[in-house]
């Protein structure tokens, strides 16, 4: 047998296990989750015929414009993700392939994960109210705020909730709307002291925001690079580290002034 023939046979023999492995992998569930742009919701509006933000003890303003919190949707914790799903996700700009354990805590049932996410949302809402009232120097003993948004979990709407409370109570501080009549979207956790934290999936969230009419996206400053990865055309990114940053930037936008950018 000639040397070229021996090399071909060697390659064929070596390739056979690889082909077999790929064939098996195509049907074996892999430890990944596939995420895509999810719903957005206007925190200044209503959800299931009830206002997202309800205020008592102070007069709530009538607002124009929108403040849209953004989400991503991932395959469920028990959903089997195949090699084909992973490859497809890698080559699509509206999908993201994430390690399963980075999305869902290991060893927890679907019900436990749902309860955890709802608890995180409740904590986020409490922090948002505290941050907003603190920014406005209002006492929670005098002003009561209730936030409700069904079927959404996790802490990443905190910044938008806080901005919504500020707009409902104070607007831009000069009689106008904090949004300036625009559709503003964004994401970010919030602490009671007003500090804004990072979240995941920002490149998918900017796509959801664009789909639902937003032209400005507020993003935690440390995630600017991620947000720019698949940034939709015409979307303006505004980085924030504190609630006060976000308020100042929205006021400047409404006044036609320059704002920070990623």
Automatic annotation (TrEMBL):
Q: Which GO terms describe its biological process?
A: proteolysis
| Occurrences of domain Lon proteolytic (ranges) | 154-246
Q: What is an example of a GO molecular function annotated in this UniProt entry?
A: ATP-dependent peptidase activity
**Organism domain of life:** Bacteria
Name the UniProt record assigns to this protein: Lon proteolytic domain-containing protein
The species this protein was found in: Streptomyces morookaense (Streptoverticillium morookaense)
């Amino acid at each position: 047998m000639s040397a070229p023939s021996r090399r071909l046979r060697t390659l064929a023999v070596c390739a056979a296990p690889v082909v077999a492995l790929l064939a098996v992998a195509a049907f074996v569930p892999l430890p990944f989750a596939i995420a895509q742009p999810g719903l957005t919701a206007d925190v200044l509006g209503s959800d299931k015929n009830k206002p997202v933000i309800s205020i008592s003890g102070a007069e709530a303003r009538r607002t124009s414009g929108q403040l849209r919190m953004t989400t991503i949707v991932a395959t469920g914790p028990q959903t089997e993700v195949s090699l084909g799903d992973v490859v497809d996700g890698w080559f699509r700009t509206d999908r993201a392939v994430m390690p399963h354990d980075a999305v869902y805590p290991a060893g927890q049932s679907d019900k436990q994960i749902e309860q955890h996410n709802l608890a995180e949302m409740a904590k986020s809402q409490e922090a948002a109210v505290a941050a907003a009232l603190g920014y406005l120097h209002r006492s929670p003993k005098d002003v009561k705020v209730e936030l409700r948004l069904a079927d959404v979990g996790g802490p990443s709407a905190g910044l938008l909730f806080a901005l919504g409370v500020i707009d409902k109570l104070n607007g831009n501080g000069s009689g106008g709307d904090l949004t300036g009549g625009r559709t503003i979207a964004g994401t970010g956790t919030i602490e009671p002291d007003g500090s804004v934290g990072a979240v995941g999936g920002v490149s998918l969230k900017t796509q959801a925001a664009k789909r639902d009419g937003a032209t400005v996206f507020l993003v935690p400053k440390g995630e600017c690079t991620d947000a720019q990865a698949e940034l939709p055309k015409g979307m303006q990114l505004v980085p924030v580290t504190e609630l006060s940053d976000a308020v100042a930037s929205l006021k400047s936008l409404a006044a036609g002034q320059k704002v920070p950018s990623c």
